[in-house]
Recover the amino acids of this structure.
């Protein structure tokens, strides 16, 4: 891949896609193809085929997906399965038909069995039952991994996959019902501080453990994978340590400046107990996360504060 290579970043308006675009642009890549979902509906096979035929991208970062937190995954089960399968099938087949040189597919740590040993190694895929709250999304992402592997083995396509852990950073979704925990709690604590509320409700028991990676660190990993990795198997991309939702809540309250009470609502789902990944294969390629959790959250809160003064 050189600075003039034609690169399509699918999903460039999302948190992951926009971070990849920032990183590519900052690294001197000048020939990016970007389409909003209004301009190109990736669930529509004909539109995707026409787009690839006309644009002929050389490299594809497949960061487009229907995503959301535990609640959205659990409620919109059909959409999470259908939309993600459709995006994967259409983009991967069009990439093959139009001789894309390399494609990177992005999945999620929820692909692993809910009771798998920790830290999660890549070989634990398909060794047990999935967490029910996000089973449809996980199955779609597993299908994406398998499409890349099958297109490599049957057609010789250089299609690879990366599995990021829970992510946060600029351009996250702050919708309280659909978002992930970190943006949801930034918003809740900020609103409580601003309105003078005495308590904030955190879903679940607070006991689940989660590993959080800043999306800019993921973007750096994606470029390394595109430049250096041509293997069959997918690679984990994680921060390397995790934190309980309870401790995360206290950390967020401290950063935001909320001094009231934190109440755990145990009527809400906890989801997976723990999903810490083993990212040693990714690290062996020379990648390390650079942004610590406290620093990353402080930076993210600053951006939130500037963008959402009305919340
Ligand atoms: O971030 P989150 O929605 O996703 O939730 P998952 C993580 C934990 O935080 C769960 C708790 O135990 C939630 O119950 N939590 C506490 C909250 N308060 C809140 C809140 O206000 N909002 C949210 N959203 N959670 C998703 C999967 O799982 O992670 C996807 O559903 C995907 O498939 C993604 O893999 C990375 O880590 O539970």
């Amino acid at each position: 891949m050189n600075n003039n290579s034609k690169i399509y970043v699918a999903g460039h308006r999302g948190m992951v896609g926009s971070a990849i675009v920032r990183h590519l642009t900052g690294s001197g890549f000048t020939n990016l193809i970007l389409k909003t979902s209004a301009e190109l509906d990736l669930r529509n096979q004909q539109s995707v085929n026409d787009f690839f035929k006309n644009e002929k991208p050389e490299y594809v970062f497949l960061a487009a997906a229907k995503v959301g937190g535990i609640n959205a995954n659990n409620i919109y089960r059909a959409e999470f399965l259908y939309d993600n399968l459709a995006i994967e099938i259409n983009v991967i087949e069009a990439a093959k038909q139009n001789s894309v040189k390399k494609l990177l597919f992005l999945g999620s740590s929820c692909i692993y069995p809910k009771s798998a040993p920790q830290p999660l190694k890549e070989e634990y895929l398909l060794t047990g039952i999935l967490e029910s709250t996000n089973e449809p999304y996980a199955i779609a992402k597993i299908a994406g991994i398998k499409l890349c592997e099958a297109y490599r083995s049957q057609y010789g396509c250089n299609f690879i996959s990366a599995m990021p852990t829970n992510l946060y950073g600029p351009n996250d979704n702050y919708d309280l019902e659909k978002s992930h925990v970190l943006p949801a709690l930034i918003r809740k604590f900020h609103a409580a501080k601003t309105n003078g509320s005495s308590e904030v409700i955190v879903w679940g028991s607070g006991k689940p453990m989660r590993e959080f990676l800043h999306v800019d660190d993921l973007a750096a990993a994606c470029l390394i994978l595109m430049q250096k990795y041509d293997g069959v198997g997918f690679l984990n991309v994680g921060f390397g340590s995790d934190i309980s939702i309870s401790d995360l809540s206290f950390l967020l309250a401290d950063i935001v400046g909320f001094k009231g009470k934190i109440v755990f609502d145990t009527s809400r789902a906890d989801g997976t107990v723990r999903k810490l990944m083993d990212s040693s294969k990714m690290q062996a390629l020379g990648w390390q996360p650079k942004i610590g959790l406290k620093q990353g959250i402080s930076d993210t809160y600053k951006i939130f504060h500037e963008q959402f003064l009305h919340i």
In short: The mean pLDDT is 97.
